[in-house]
């Protein structure tokens, strides 16, 4: 987008200026024209749903803030308030636990002291939401051309929804911070106003609110807009000098005593500080060595990041250039709190990868990192804790210095290498599949995306399972119902099997070990083998397991059930966890980490049955199929013998697994396997399904084939 790098009279030729303006106009006309075109009824429905979702999220964010008691909502904003207004300057702004912004930010807030604190909370919250909406619109209008009709039609609600979900916006709304404003001012300077002076003024004011934003003056300079760069620096200097004149003690405290805000608010080595300075402090570095190392690393990041940003600006990807510069600002700031990290989310517009299957990796990673806490993305394993604790900083550094974003001149920028899909196989019912676009992919899915998907789904499963608790009386009542039903069906073998196994030490040890160990090992092994050897079947198997697990969560919510070992008066022996004190409401420490009433359906048996079915269908040898079918048999014996499940819990597990297979069949169609061969009967067609003609079966492929 040459509008960013054009020069003006006195600093370049007029022809280049006109060409740059025409380029900006063409891009804006392209976005507006495509958005105005009719993309189809299905896209219109999707757009309406996305706008509804964005509205619901906005209402929810406002409700979360405003429903809190006055002493708990807008925590940072309320530390600035006195009895009658927003900013109570009796003493220093930077008394412990109070203001953390720049002196200029405090000076800007001072005229608001006539507002009542309660009314201010409402106005502040809804004003911040409006800024988020405006930010989304400006970002969408800045997308690099050409933009497809469908993308332009859906971009605004998608962008606003992502902003509402992001951790920086949620944190800003909850704390009552001003960190959305500098981002918006910079975007307006780059995309909404013309000339040299006004963009520089807007950028300078943004830098006065968030000093690291002054790096955008460097981007202006490198891209030929030196007038805007000089104006931005001068505006920043004037705003800062004005704050020095009006509040000299506070300015001294912020710029000198706290080194541009370092040390204000939380400790600079806390996990909330996602800057290079914070990371070095968390690694145990202190004193002059840490300062010198931080300054050296910051200089390298600034040099690499600004050069990359200037290159993307010249390439016409100005929004990406702005995002890269913002990520540089995040990394080199002395403190970069969560509410200041919105720049990282803008980097989602960068395109990485020449294959269509890899194109989603970067945006998905950015969205997950900016919307979910680190503990949901990575497990609590010591060797990866430094990565988990610094994920936002790593994402910022990757965008600023490392990620190989494609230039618009690349042949793959608009047309990545297409994904290889299998040809559709006719289903038994004409209305199957319900989702015809969910076609089988023959190549392996991206490993990073799959690992993130598995981790996020499992984290959500664990959170929901733990939250799906009910009263002890309801769970025990359901346990009595299950026990009575089994007695009526004459399948109440739990007590007999439990006491029989307890009397045979080696058998008890075997079932205890099997129950505790193989529940996770076998499903992960099956998924790993399928990913490596049978990628197309891996997608089918993974989807069925996910659907079954989601259905099981509904069971945990709707029917909390006490397992036999936690039923008082029935005489069961807990062989795995030991004797439980049933007079204690927590039943020991285990209740604090898991929901012990999530017994119906049994996912121990459900997952084992899934493993048995998948192995029986796909294993090439008879002995492998037989061994796979032994796993659910051993599992159902273990869960009953150890007193952890009723027999009907296993029936429930089988039900949700069967439903999982059925749901995937209905949504995506048959598994595309020939009877007795275990191979895909579909020829590779490159871009998609065949337009016509009968299905031609393909001969069996070797076990190591990618298809």
Quick synopsis:
This protein has 707 residues and is mostly helical. It contains 28 helices and no strands.
Note down, in words, how this protein is organized.
By secondary structure, the chain is an all-alpha fold. Helices cover 60% and strands 0% of the residues.
The value of Rg in angstroms is: 30 Å
Strand content: under 5%
Shape annotation: globular
Distinct helical segment count:
28
Q: Major sheet, described briefly?
A: none
Instruction: Tell me the number of strands.
Output: 0
Unreliable runs: 1-37, 83-87, 113-118, 588-593, 673-707
Distance between the termini: 42 Å
What fraction, in percent, of the residue positions are helical? 55-70%
Reading the helices and strands in chain order gives HHHHHHHHHHHHHHHHHHHHHHHHHHHH
Structural class: mainly alpha
Mean pLDDT: 79
List keywords for this structure.
single chain; 60% helix; disordered N terminus; mainly alpha
Secondary structure layout plus pairing:
Elements: H1 14-36, H2 41-66, H3 75-80, H4 103-109, H5 117-141, H6 149-165, H7 167-175, H8 180-191, H9 197-209, H10 215-222, H11 226-246, H12 248-257, H13 276-282, H14 287-314, H15 318-332, H16 342-346, H17 361-371, H18 374-377, H19 385-389, H20 391-402, H21 447-467, H22 472-489, H23 494-502, H24 505-533, H25 535-558, H26 603-618, H27 622-641, H28 647-668
Helix pairs in contact: 1-6, 2-5, 2-6, 5-6, 5-8, 8-9, 8-15, 9-11, 10-11, 10-14, 11-12, 13-14, 14-15, 14-20, 15-20, 21-25, 24-25, 24-26, 24-27, 25-26, 25-28, 26-27, 26-28
